[in-house]
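Hello support,

Our group uses your service weekly, and this is the first time we've seen a run hang past the timeout. The protein is Protease synthase and sporulation protein PAI. I'm not sure whether the cause is the sequence or the server load. Input pasted verbatim:
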Amino acid sequence: MYQPPAFKEDRPEVLQQLVQRHPLAMLACNGEGVPIVNHVPMIWKTQNGAPVLLAHLARANDLIKRMDDGQEALAIFQGPTHYITPNWYPGKKEHGKEVPTYNYMVAHLRGTLQFHEDADWLLSQLNGLTDQMEAGRDAPWSVDDAPDEFTTRQLKGIYGVELRITDMVGKWKVSQNRAAADQQGVVAGLRGEGNDEALHMADLISSKQ
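Update from on-call engineer: The timeout came from a worker crash unrelated to the input. Re-ran successfully.
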């Protein structure tokens, strides 16, 4: 991934936070020369001091047949994004030499695949994913809420995916390369739009000032 110095963000703890807040990954693999992409929520775990990503896919998804254990894959996680109009830059009114851009946050985690069909592994992954996604709810749902025989049948319809991370990089493009006046103009413009994505991006830009 292209990483201009101003936007480079490779700190593991920061990338981990993005993964945990935005767990839906684009899992990209190279299957016999043809890209294979699946969209799947993944949870970050630490095993023997190293990060891994855990997920599950429907058994009807033939990724497990097209890929072998040990092959490389790339998980891409995207955080908040927003279009930035040049109308928010003060210089636009002065000289007009401004263009639009797009702000975003993204993490690329590369690693090797390991597939799992063991029921205990699958149940552990489901519990971990559920606990993460249900955290903070007034009445969080638990895997144990479902009847045992129902859960057992459901487990037969999935297989587990583990990505053992070997490299991770991130890119935080949140107007760091702009002058303070431009950043302030963008923040004001985003707050004026008022939607959740705009307000989140405004907060991110403000935190980098």
